[in-house]
Amino acid sequence: MARAKIKRGSTNVDMTAMCDVAFLLLTFFILAAKFKPSEAIEVVTPASVSNKHAPQKDYFNVTISKDNRVFIDMDDAMKGDVLDELGKERGIQFSDADKKGFQQATFVGVPLSQLTSFLNLTPEQLGKMTLPGIPYDSTNNQVLAWISAAVQASQGKKANFLIKGDNASKYTTFKAVIDAFKKNEIYKYNLVTNAADVPEGSELYKKNLSGQMSKE
Amino acid sequence: MAEMEVKGTSHKKGPGVKKSKKQSTRVDLTPMVDLGFLLITFFIFTTTMAQPTSMNLNMPKDTDKPDENTKVKESGSLTLMLGKGNVIYYYYGADPATMQTTGYKDVRKIILDKKKKTPAEDFFVIIKPDKDATYKNAVDLLDEMNINDVSRYAMVDPSPDEYSMIQQTEVAGGVK
Lengths: 216, 176
Prior knowledge:
heterodimer; A: alpha/beta; five-stranded mixed beta sheet; 8 helices; 5 strands; B: alpha/beta; 4 helices
C-alpha cells in the first residue's frame, strides 16, 4: 500500500538574522550614548521625589564637594561669553590659549590666580591633584564673580542655574552659594538630586493619584 | 537546540570507497542572540537611570523692610531646626524653649499632625538649618515639604539664641 509521505518541516529557525538585528541595535545604542565625562569630583547627591529631569542645556552648575569645596561648570555654548565677561569684570586679559583650554575644560576648580596653569593640566594630572576649589569667603568671593559673569553672559537668554551638592557637604557652604546667587538677583535654582519614589500614602502620593499636577 | 542534518541524497559509492561523514557547518546562534539582547537591555537601563533629576527651589528676595517680610501666624507655625548628627529640633509657635527632638524618619508625622490641626491658610513651616546641618538635611526637608504638600514654608537661619539652645542640647545629649 502506498502511504502518503508527510514532509516534515525543520523546527529550526535561522537565528542569523535575529542575531544581526540584536547586535546592530547594540552597536547603535553604544555609539549613540553620550559618555559621561569622567568626574574629577565625586558627588553623591541627595534623593528627592521630584521627577523633573535636570536641564542639560544652557546650564550653569555649581558643585559642592563633600569637603565643602566649590566647583563650577557650564554648557559649552556659554563658555566663551562667560570668560569674556569675567575678564572684563576682573580686568584680566585671557590669551587665546586660555580660551581654548577653557572651552575644553569640563569644570573649573581653582582660584582665578591659578586658572591659566589649571587649564594647561592634562586630564591625567587633574585626576591626581587635589584641587583647592573656588574661594567663596566674604573677602574673596570668586564664586560670586563667576556667577555674575554667567548672568551677564546669559542676558536675554534662557539660563538654568544648577546646584549640585554632596550629601555630606555643610549647609553653610550651600548657603554661601545661594547668597552669591541672590546677590546677582537670581532666585530660581535647580537642585540636582537622585530620583526617589513618592512614599505610598503620603499627601503627594494621593495628589498624584487623583491626577492633579503638583505645583512646581 | 539540535541541528538537523539535511539528509537525502546519499550517493551510492563503490564498494571500496569509504563513506566520509560530513560535519554540519551550522552554528547554533541562540546563545549569541540572547547575549546581544541582554547587553541591549543593560545599556538601555543604565543610560536612563543615570539621568539626574532636579528639584526647583525659589528663594525670596532679601529685604530689610519689616513690612515686606512674610507674616506668620504664631498659632499656625511649626519651626524645624536641623542640628548636628541628623537630629531635628522642633517647636510650635514662637517659643523655642518648648523645643522637642525628633529624627528624619518621624518628622513627617509631626508635619502632618500640625497640618491637620491648623487651618490651611495659617499653616507655615519654618526650616532653620544650623551651622552643623548638612546639605542633605536641608534637601531632605525641602523634599518633605513636597511630599506632604506644604505650600507655605521658608528656609531661614536660626537666631543666636536658638543656636545656643541647640548646642546646649547637643552637648547634654552627647551628639557628635
